[in-house]
Amino acid sequence: MGKPCARVCVIRAEGDGVEPVLVLQTEKGSWCRLNHGTAVGPPQYMFGAPEGLSRLLLTHRRILGEDGPPLPSPSLKAIFASTLHPNQVGGLVGLFLRLKADGHEKVHLFGPRGLVGPLLFNCQNIVRWTYPYVLVTEHEDDTPTTLVYSDDLIDVWVTSGQPGERLDGLARFGPSGDFPDASTFAALSESSVCLPREQLGRRAAEARGEGNRRAAPSPVLAHCIKLKKIEKLVVIVDCASEGEAGTLLRSGFWACLAENQSCISQVFHRSAEDAMKSQSYHSLLAALSGATHVNMRSGAHMEFGFSGSLKTLLKLSGVDKRAFKLPVSESAGSIGCGQGEQNMLSWAGVFHSFGLFDDGRWEAEEVPRDTLNDRFRLALGTENSESSSSDNGEAQVVEDGNRGAASLLRDSILRGGSAQRAEPAAKRHCKEAGGVRVVFFGTGCAEPSKYRGGTGILVEWGSGSMLLDCGESVWGQMIRHFGKKKALKKLSSLSCLWISHKHADHLLGLVSLLHNRPPSSKRLLLIGPHVAFKWLRSCDPSLLGKCVFKHHTHFMKDPEILQRFMAPLGIAHFASIPVYHCRDSYAVVFGHRAGWKISFSGDCRPCRSFVEASKGSTVLIHEATFETKYHKHAERKNHCTITEALEVSKQVGAGITILTHFSQRYPYIPMELQEIMKGEGCGERETSTPPVLVAFDGMCVELSRLSEYAATTPRVAQLLTSEAAVEGALDDKVGA
């Protein structure tokens, strides 16, 4: 059959809020893995970089690299974005950090006008970005079709769908035709911006000024890729609405494709579901009825891509189903495709690959399937079933192996006399905290790992809710935890978004969250550092109309807005407390008239003012980035060790202490904490000491159940200690 001359890989995980991405890989040359683990080889081209993409690729690197270089490999040459929406560019910063960790040297980024400003702002304020070098090219939207990229393997055109002259023949897609030729691409490259470089501040200011003066850029409605070796076209359609579908249908670009359908290998549809259901979209498909169409969204709603954290939840749900709730799985609705329906391909799974051959044929390829989604569905189907018992009283495993093992462990520990003793401190707070929940969407630090994402903590009570920090993919994790419909309701009713400081793992998800907040919602109170406001203004000034921004100190000094915020929510006191981490860093302490009180440290070194303000808290949430043996590392990066966090807990005397913000070194529980948590179950700690929980992505803590968590802690430690021993060391790149 021969080897394909190119491969197209589609990646998506909409159960985790990761929009579909297409990666084109040419098969020129062969690839090899160097001694330090870096893979080089055939050039790759990526179309789209949505929020959460970096973590998704890291999680499934072994699957993607089974028979070739992983995605992305150091041979990634270019990234193409259709719009400035987070579902297209929200994952760029995380992707660049991943490329840096993999030893990538440079990449070329293409997108609509306005792309440079936010990236430059990131360079200066949010991430330490010195590598890789990124050449950014903004293409204007005043011409119907533009050749934005050309090398010896492919040409890439973009169209905004504006009416243009009628084009005839495949030759029109070549440099000698009426389409913009290679000189246009050269001119675009000359006006590109290389990141990072000197005088970023001046260029960022210019980009921001241009964005304020000019109208919003027109989105790219389609990419057309010419594979030069086989003279075939691959088309990617990106329509956000029925109106955009109609615009593309009326364009000269689509008319040209319709007349040259024999030259089209495949048409990939990444358009919004509502757009694909419209009559205009049916007409689009009918115009290319002779081409093969691939629906990049169909079947995606059941797929969860962050399998590391999903695997952890599957195990821990056997210990406590309420604290470790399984994600909400929603089935995808059917998408009508009109006359093109017979050629609309779809599939289930996070990945799918197509091989393109020299003679123009294409074939779907086998991609090793991550079976965790299948196990998850099995767990959902048996979640409420009862475990049967044998004659000798031993529990029988009738469900998924991990869930059954967790149930056995739970039963054996309880039978062994580990009484569910209620700590006095927890008892004291339970009566005050009915109906209050704390949900953890991200519990890692710096760059996300397989098991932990960027910080995001939702606090809900009867009259309001507050989100503490908003790292990348927090919106996606809300979708995973609640399901999309309920997540939108939660987002619409959110009372306040509080940002501790300017670092990427606490801030990058802010744009996506505001983009997805329903237009009918009230303006959201946003409390944070000055960088948060500048970040929104740089990305999309229109988002400022969805929120009311207040800096931490200004908010505390404005009694009118403070009272207007606190009174309807029943908040008795609220304080943002400066802490020692980076410039403009804060912790938060707030209490309710019902008597409960929650304290969150943000990122910091031990802070006396925070300890004093937090005393008597019902819940203390504190960062514990490193084990004590890395105390020099913690001091250098202005973080806390586990010992320091536990000392703060002892001084505060909270009803329960939850440790979070762990280094990538610790996929489950740091060794130092394992011994402490096991000791709680053996009665080794003083009964007056409140329980300590380790936060995991997706964990939900109900304040009315504080007395139960003292028994949960040792069971979790025992389960995950044995799991870590089986799996071995984490193969992520270690660092924080």
TrEMBL record:
<feature type="domain" description="Metallo-beta-lactamase">
    <location>
        <begin position="467"/>
        <end position="662"/>
    </location>
</feature>
<keyword id="KW-0378">Hydrolase</keyword>
<keyword id="KW-0479">Metal-binding</keyword>
<keyword id="KW-0255">Endonuclease</keyword>
<dbReference type="Pfam" id="PF12706">
    <property type="entry name" value="Lactamase_B_2"/>
</dbReference>
<keyword id="KW-0819">tRNA processing</keyword>
<keyword id="KW-0862">Zinc</keyword>
<dbReference type="InterPro" id="IPR001279">
    <property type="entry name" value="Metallo-B-lactamas"/>
</dbReference>
<keyword id="KW-0540">Nuclease</keyword>
<dbReference type="GO" id="GO:0005739">
    <property type="term" value="C:mitochondrion"/>
</dbReference>
<dbReference type="GO" id="GO:1990180">
    <property type="term" value="P:mitochondrial tRNA 3'-end processing"/>
</dbReference>
<protein>
    <recommendedName>
        <fullName>ribonuclease Z</fullName>
        <ecNumber>3.1.26.11</ecNumber>
    </recommendedName>
</protein>
<dbReference type="GO" id="GO:0046872">
    <property type="term" value="F:metal ion binding"/>
</dbReference>
<dbReference type="GO" id="GO:0042781">
    <property type="term" value="F:3'-tRNA processing endoribonuclease activity"/>
</dbReference>
<dbReference type="InterPro" id="IPR047151">
    <property type="entry name" value="RNZ2-like"/>
</dbReference>
<dbReference type="InterPro" id="IPR036866">
    <property type="entry name" value="RibonucZ/Hydroxyglut_hydro"/>
</dbReference>
<comment type="similarity">
    <text>Belongs to the RNase Z family.</text>
</comment>
